[in-house]
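Morning!

This is the sequence you dropped in the shared folder:
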Amino acid sequence: MSTANVADLSQGRYLLFLDILGFSQLVNTRGRDEVMGVINEALAEFDRWARLNSQFKTIYFSDTFLFYQVPKGFGAWAFLDVHAIGALVLTSLLAKGIPASGAISFGEFDVFDRTEGGHQVYFGRALVEAHEAEQRENWIGISILQSAWKPHEAESPGIIKAFERDKVWQQREDNVLLLNPFIKMRDWHLHDLIGEIDCPYEEWDAPDFSNEIAAFRFLKNQADAYSRQVDFTGKVVSKFHATQLFIAQIFGAELLAWANKISTTDQRSLQ
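The structure's back. Tokens below.
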């Protein structure tokens, strides 16, 4: 690795850029209290993880959330933390009926608190890259950019493909990783098959597993509703359909059937 690359890694930060979808319509059609409710729900999730992991902080403006690494420098821990936290935050928002999409990048990102006027200034290549990537995507999910995963692959060759085999993400032809946010479903599927889940699904490993069940249900119900209306082309509508296709691909038939079973409204307490 060149000296320049080493310097870049030592000065970089991981950044999760997350946008609430349909926020402008929400502001235009709903009351102030409802809009504030959506914002507060989202902020609560980021605040929860910032408390649990002091190495990350949150910046919020309008419909956008930035969850960034505080200490500069690449570390495998930061890569693993940011994509896992991103997945858990996304499913928590979806569980509350708040669709969002975003991207994870690594690179220069500076934050300054100006004493004069109390302003916060932030900028950097990682922010520009993540914002542009989120704008290009047409789904409800989180994309992991090459700047984020390649340093980890360089440190642990083969790790990206190994995680892909475990359904953590799907690598696209352009080398963007599409993150599977259903961490707990991946983990608990086989445990359930051998009878280890001995209480109602939505009480098991709460709140994260129950969030995933509600998130899966929300995505499916929204896509099904649009299908019944023969609506496939709207900007937000197409994101729901694309997300359903992604979930079917990365889950596979067996995991998808189980997820459908445990998220069916009238089977919340099957155990």
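Headline: The first helix runs from residue 3 to 11.

More detail when I'm at my desk.
O.
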